[in-house]
Design a protein that fits this description.
Strand order of the largest sheet: 10-9-8-7-11-12-15
CATH topology of the largest domain: Rossmann fold
Mean pLDDT: 92
Structural class: alpha/beta
Shape: globular
Helix content: 10-25%
CATH architecture of the largest domain: 3-Layer(aba) Sandwich
CATH superfamily of the largest domain: Nucleotide-binding domain of ferredoxin-NADP reductase (FNR) module
Length: 247
């Protein structure tokens, strides 16, 4: 079982509406982190809130980068932490992406699902990247991804990039795809699974479910698979798309 780590916040930045980036100082966490894993952060506000699972955006040189969206009381508390504050967390947790899938990699990210894909993308050769956001104000990390490979952006309302969804952009170039790595809302992941099956391409999906313990003890974060219910925190969050059953 993972032990709690103490991580000092050494940088804090607001990226866009409701999104906050923290850089954490802990060499052990950074050294052990793999693309697709997450940390489970204690919310120490005296209200006995559950820990918050936050995906790892990047990790190197003793520093771990996390980016999250303020969605409730727990993430609001986390967003209010500043440089010099210390977080208590468990991590890195979960099963990450398989980098040895072979072939040209397509990265498909939607909304906050973009963040867990950055560390992965840094480790791939000549990936093609497709990012989707609600609108222009929510677009983040485009330049960072563009430095790693061809990057196309879509927005739901057409206020930036192409109008529509990231998966639409990816399907136009699917003939060049060897494997898909995707993270985002469930409707997007369901569509990615369907596209991968249509074209006979392997896909890995990073699933998101509400978590309690983060270590496989509470059975809260289950998702349906071809082999029964699986725990996202322990046996995921990354699964082969063929395993996942979407309702």
């Amino acid at each position: 079982m993972k032990q709690d780590l103490k991580c000092a916040i050494i940088e804090r930045r607001v990226l866009s509406s409701g999104q906050v980036e923290l850089i954490l100082d802990n060499p052990r966490l950074a050294d052990e982190a793999k693309p697709g894993q997450f940390v489970h952060i204690a919310v120490e506000n005296g209200k006995n809130l559950l820990r918050r699972p936050i995906s790892i955006c990047d990790a190197e040189n003793g520093r771990t980068r996390i980016i999250f969206e303020i969605k409730g009381e727990g993430t609001k508390w986390l967003a209010e932490r500043g440089v010099g504050d210390t977080l208590t967390l468990m991590g890195p947790l979960g099963r990450g992406f398989d980098l040895d899938a072979g072939g040209r990699a397509f990265i498909i990210g939607g909304g906050i699902g973009v963040f867990p894909l950055y560390m992965l993308t840094k480790r791939l050769k000549e990936p093609k990247i497709f990012l989707g956001f609600r609108n222009k104000d929510m677009v983040v990390m485009e330049d960072e991804f563009a430095a790693l490979g061809k990057t196309l952006v879509a927005t739901d309302d057409g206020s930036y990039g192409a109008k529509g969804f990231a998966i639409d952009l990816a399907e136009r170039e699917i003939s060049d795809c060897g494997v898909i790595y995707a993270c985002g809302p469930k409707p997007m992941l369901k569509a990615v699974k369907a596209m991968a099956e249509r074209h006979g391409v392997r896909a890995q999906l990073s699933m998101e479910e509400r978590m309690g313990c983060g270590i496989g003890a509470c059975l809260v974060c289950v998702c349906k698979t071809t082999t029964g219910n699986r725990q996202v925190c322990l046996q995921g969050p990354v699964f082969d798309a063929k395993e996942i059953i979407f309702d």
